[in-house]
Amino acid sequence: MTGLERAAARSVRWVIAGLVLTPVLLAVPTPHGSTGWILLHLTVVATYGLALTMALVESLDGHWFDGLARRGRLFATAASIIALATGAVALVTLASSAALRLDPSLQYLQLLSALDIAWVAGATAIGARLLGGRLIGWAAGIAVVAVCVWSVASYLVAVGYTPAGGWLVYGNAMWRYILPFDMAAAVVAITTLTVGVRRSATELGAVQPIEHASRQS
Q1: Are 144 and 150 in contact (CB under 8 A)?
Q2: Who wins on pLDDT, 201 or 90?
Q3: Which of 35, 156, 167, 211 could form a disulfide with 105 if both were Cys (CB 3.0 to 4.6 A apart)?
């Protein structure tokens, strides 16, 4: 089994675990207009995605794309890990949002938010891990999750909900409370990952930087 296949199998196990726990949410009172429940749910699924990313990042020790140069191999492997984690987040978010019986429009907002946070937090965490080790990667990823959830919280507090407890779309508020932070997080994620991959591949080679990061874990 290749490194990519092992990572995919591990992602499936994480998804199954997340789905198995989802029915517990059926016991939670329907959180119409409950910002606290909505933000807690978003934080949990975003942190789940970050944890899966950090669990899969050990796969960087392998060679998934041996036909590529060192830098390309690291970047392609990191991108694959981010894609696997983001896909897992999507499935768990859909199931858990339905179990919470959120309004369909609010389920869509949770999905969009969770996917956005999953990839930017994952990319930032991997880049930071390459630069400074596992603890730095975790700290960077958590910081991104916190900022993104805070931006969603600011929007919901400022705008509120529809009478049915759904997502009230207000363009000006989106541009004020959410989109600037999303764009900033994307820039940070891409920059951190790019710098981490470039430094690792250029200075230490394709395998040594990951071993170095693992020793700091």
Answers
A1: no
A2: 90
A3: 167
Q: pLDDT tens digit string along 118-159?
A: 999 999 999 999 999 999 999 999 999 999 999 999 999 999
Q: What confidence category does residue 179 fall into, taking pLDDT thresholds of 50, 70 and 90? A: very high
Helix, coil or strand: residue 167? strand
Kindly write down the DSSP assignment for every residue of 133-158, as one continuous string: -HHHHHHHHHHHHHHHHHHHHHHHHH
Number of separate domains in the chain: 1
The two three-digit tokens of residue 201, written as one number: 């591949």
Length of the chain, please? Answer: 217
Q: How far is CA 210 from CA 28, 88, 183, 200, 206, in A?
A: 42, 24, 29, 8, 8
9's tokens: 């199998």
Supply the range of the domain harboring residue 197. 3-215
**Could you tell me which of 29, 26, 31, 56 has the C-alpha nearest to residue 42?**
31
